[in-house]
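S1.2 Input.
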Amino acid sequence: MSKESTYHSENQLKIDEQTFFELYEFYWKKLYHIALKYLGDSFQAEEVVQELFTSLWQRKDTLLLFEDTVENYLVRAVRFRIARIYSDEVRRTKKIDEFKQRQATSNNLTEKQVLYNFLQEDVDKLVNLLPDRCKDVYQLSRTKGLNNREIAGNLLISEKTVENQLTKALNFIRNGLKRYPRT
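S1.3 Output.
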């Protein structure tokens, strides 16, 4: 780099067209190799260096660079852009994983809900096949949540009869549902 084009005051670089091209010619290969080393992708490495120099040109009037630190600045800028790429990739991967997890959970819940609905339909059909007294006892117990004493009081039967009717209903339903897998 020629000293005339790079000095402004106190070793500060004035980035004009000539200085910019000198910086580009002098540092692009080193910056490219740094980016390639970390990214392992020549296209992405070129893109990082290109973005850095584009940003440098766009900020040429406000950016303060000094001749003795310009290389450090450019290397740090490339590393910062690489870190941002890694960070974006981690965030993107995390979002994809979260989406896949939500999708799997959603599919699993949907599948469970469908199976539950089928099971409930089959239980309802089996309950409807029970003798009236047995059906009444089962429904008061399972649908209304009454205990044996309350059922006996409602139907004016003994608690022992309630127990027997519930046992009969549950065995009938259990046998009718043998095709469902046990978990």
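S1.4 Remarks. DSSP finds seven helices and two strands in the chain.
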